[in-house]
Predict the structure.
Amino acid sequence: VKQLEIVGGPEILDGSRKRRVVGQRISPELLDEVSSWAEAQLRNHGFPCPQVDVKAQVWDGKIVLNVKAGPRLRIRHFSIKGLDGLEPSVVRRYKAFQEGEWYDMRATQLTASRMMNE
C-alpha cells in the first residue's frame, strides 16, 4: 500500500492517522481492518450507521474508502424497559453517556458492559 484515500467522509476520518497501512501488502484482512477502523471512527463521533466501501487499486498501490457517513445524531432519549422488578434509577448509574451528547459507540458498549458485569 502506497496511499490510503478517503472519499466522501467527514474530516474526522483522516487516512494519515491510520497506522500500519502504508507499506503493508494488500490483503483481504488489511481491507477488512481499514473498513472496520473507518466505521468505528464514524460510530465513535456521532454517526451510528455509516456505510464504508473499500477498494484496492493494485496498479497504483492505493486503498480507497468511499464513505457515506449518514446523519450525525445525538442521543435524545434513553428508556429502560424489560428489567422486571429493578428500579430504573439503579440502571441509570451505569450509563456512560447523557441525553443530548453525540452518539458514541464506545459509550453504549461501556454501558452494556457495566450492566452485564453487575
